[in-house]
Each structure stands twice: as structure tokens, then as C-alpha cells.
# Entry
Amino acid sequence: MFFGISHLVVPVTDLQRSAALWCDVMGFAAVQRGDGFVDIDTGSASLRLLQVQNVEASVALRLQVSDVAAAYAALLAAGATSRYAPVKTPQLEEMACVNDADGHAITVWRALSEDEWGFVPDLPKQGQWLPEAEDLLKRLLAHVPALFRMLARRRTTRVIEQLAQEAQSPVTRDLVIKGYITASAKVTRFRLVEPLKAEGIDPAQYQAEFDYE
# Structure
């Protein structure tokens, strides 16, 4: 019966001005124009800018962007007024907010990369780990690009704990090194040499793990 939301309606008092903000400043496309409205394709949702005499209730919209500061500055330059400048939040986001000419709140935001969190997240461990083993893995994972680090953390921790279970041992420094190597695809293991050397580890002593299929 219900097929989903087709449009979000944004009442505006100057249709041309609002369409210019969404198209010329933000770079979205007007896909349909009619008597008193313009439909904007934002890529993830359609907005219908609807001409009204007076805006009786404002709306709030969130837009994901790659550069919060640049988006915020562009909106201000286009005539929007600031609600708050770029700020990092406890939800690990950066965001800023403006009001458009009709008082609608436009929040621009992006997720912070792990390098911007200001803390090192805990390992998703379940077994017993020696403190020096856990510390070593956290340092080694810091060499993984932030975009892939969460996935690497989960996979590497799981492989290491499997090795510890097979050895009937708590997780040791040696098991961390072996799991760190074998959890990586063989074709990319050469990238692990420098992080290991940076920790004073001789990769040659773990050639069997580098050769592991």
C-alpha cells in the first residue's frame, strides 16, 4: 500500500532564491518545475520547494558533506545565517548549522575519521590478553589507514584469539605478531614489514606467517 516517501516539502517565500541556493550553491539538480514548486534531486532524497506566502513552520535538514568548514562558509556566503560554527560532537561527527532565508535549519555534517577521535578504541576481544600483547596490537593497527582500521581490528583480533585458543594460551606478544601477519591478505603482507620493524620486530623471524596461505 505504501511505497515510501517521494518528497520532503520545504515551504519557501521566494522560490527562485531557494532554488538558487540548492542548485547553484549546493550543486543539486532541479528535476521538475511546476506552478509554484521546484523539485530538487539531492541524490538521496527529493525536496519539493513549495512557494508560500508565509512560512508557518520551519523544517530542519541534515546534509552529509566531505568538508564541513567549506560547506558552512559557502552557505554563509550565499546569505544564510549561522546557528553554530563547525564543532566536533561526542557522536564522533563534525557538524555546523545555518538558517536559510526562510528560517529553515540546514545542518552540514560528516563522520570523523578514527584518526580524529582523540582516543584509541578498545579491541573487540573476548579471551585473556596479556597487557603488552594488547598494547602491541593497538600500535600495529595504527599503521592501517583509518578508513579500513575498524575492519582490520575486528578481523585481526578474531584471528589472534583463534591462534590463542589453538595454543590453549592467553594472547601473547608472539601470537599478536603471528595473527597480525596471517590476518592480512598474502598479496599485501609486504606492507606489514615496516610497522613490524618500527616495533623492533624482525620480520624474518616470522617468514612462515608471511608465506602462510
In short: The helical segments are 15-25, 68-77, 131-141, 146-167, 173-182, 193-198, 207-211. Residues 19 and 38 are 7 Å apart (CA to CA). The two ends are 52 Å apart (CA to CA). The first strand starts at residue 8 and ends at 12.
